[in-house]
Design goal:
10 helices; about 20% helix; Rossmann fold
Amino acid sequence: MNTASLLERLLATPAATLPSHAGDGRLYFLQDSGGSAQVWELSGAGGAPRQRTGHADAVSFVAGLPDGGAIFGRDGAGDERFQLYHLPPEGEARALTADPRTIHGWGAISPDGSRIAYTANSRDPAHSDAWVMDIASGAARCVAEREGPHELPAWSADGNALLLATAPRTFEATLLRVPVEGGAATELTPHQDDARHLNPRAKADGSGYWLLADRGREFLAVAFQRDGAVPELLYAPEADVEKLELSPDQRHLAVVVNEGGYSRLRLLDAAGAVVAEPAHPAGVITKLSWSPDGQKIVFDLARFSAPSALYAAGLDGAPAALLHGATPPEGLRDWTTMSFPTFDGREIPAFLAFPGGPMPAGGWPMLVWVHGGPAMQALPNWRADLQAVLAQGIGVLVPNVRGSTGYGVAYAALDDREKRLDSVADLAAAHAHLATLAEVDGTRIGIMGQSYGGWMVLAATTEYPELWACGVDFYGIANWQSFFRNTGPWRIGHRAAEYGDPVADAELLHRLSPLHQAARIRCPLLVAQGLTDPRVPPSESEQIVAALQANRIAVQYLTFADEGHGFTKRHNRRAVYEAVLRFLAAHLTA
């Protein structure tokens, strides 16, 4: 099978994600069979899946309601101005919000199923307020004006208050109780800088709630919180517990532990003791959903060699069973987990894959793929583009350089502010390590990344221009000053806490802006950008492309009018992936 036909098969293999049960037992989920993620459902009685929405733009989430219906959200062409919709058990959806200027951030469904909580920045684009809406009537009201970004992850057990999570910085989150009928907010978690309190789930008797917390720890743990008290740890492995869902009868907790990037499902009792560890394929779990009777947990799981599918597991500890999913093409490659040394003696964790078939005499050309964030983690996830790159005869290394999450709080802080370029030095160390391997042609190593990973590509090719044979930059930051001027105002405070203040740290941000060193770039670049991107506006890509053209460096620039921060539509993914494959063929395998 040639690479073009394989890519088409990879893109046509649908992913099923984000499962959510409704009260009548039906299971809602998102699936991209038609080219973008839409709402589908599986009946609790079995039978074939049924598609419930058919929009051109992708649906971002779906949440099942007690009456069998659902709430879902979508934006317009990737602009992230999400609107909310009600999908009844039968029939067509209706819009609950209809203000294309406003971001409506999904929150939670009230205990009785009659209301929803969400955030909206209609008052001021930089600040999101807490709102409550009656689903039946559509009547909505602001219950609290808030400064800065936050989320509404849950309701109180009695439905009289919202649990609000502040997020001024990546590794700081405090929980507050906000009365629905007015009144002052109450801080629930004693504040501590660089401590997270996430994913609260209220106990029915009102005595507190389960949550994830990392106070004084390197990793997130399951805890129980009583108002104003320090969280009591219940389950605290030496790895991040990333997800927590409480069973409807409140007798069990389903959690997902991040073990070196791989998700591991565990079922606990309410006191935190492990009662079952159902076996499941090695991969990445994004969402958990308990069945209404509390006897089964459904989750999505993606692998590097297969798109996300739905699995179900029970409290008996039996292996998880495939519930719904597509079969990918045969012969796809998988990751090897490894590490490599860097400049200060640390070992940098990474995933590595080589193509199948006989190795070329001089070794495989390689592509280093850098994740975004920066406070994110490269995971063994489904990537149709990287599978096509491997099929084209190019190996792939995916590092989790310093600053990545999943390896403890201290590791994630190693690239903060003035230490930012240390993470770029880790990329040079990745190149050096690859060049020592017998399987690798050290003269043919390219680099690719998206968003902050796109900045990493530009930084790597300016800081270490002699190393790279080519670069692929998807919507990366070129100039931190213009980024802060043009990014969505709701993001500025959070991003300044990570990267540096655009005024107080102007000198540092100037030094960290690849645009000011664009003359150092030697290798050809491919740049791709969605034109509705509110996070990294097109001006960032335009500036670096103009600089490369002025310096007579080969550059190809692709734009997509109906995409934002990422390429969500199949026809656009096809276009950009085909361009990447042609570009890599010209500069790594020719």
